[in-house]
Predict the structure.
Amino acid sequence: MPWCDDCSRFWNPTSMGKGGECPTCGRVIAAPPKVPWHFKLMLVALAVYLGFRAWQGVAWAIHHF
Ligand SMILES: [Zn+2]
């Protein structure tokens, strides 16, 4: 639980701001959650895969109509 010295209270991570700041005084009390690099890589791979499948579908449609 992140603790704010200025407000002398604990904060629920969900009630803090996006940058991990205290909702009352705005002081950063916790590191913002980081997106792991392999998650980004997975999104890129998924986009490439879906693009490839879409291209395959277009190529199939061109050949069959
Ligand atoms: Zn505070």
Q: What stands out?
A: DSSP finds one helix and two strands in the chain. Residues 4, 6-7, 22, 24-25, 27 surround zinc ion (CB under 6 Å). Helices lie at 37-64. The chain has two domains: 1-33, 35-65.
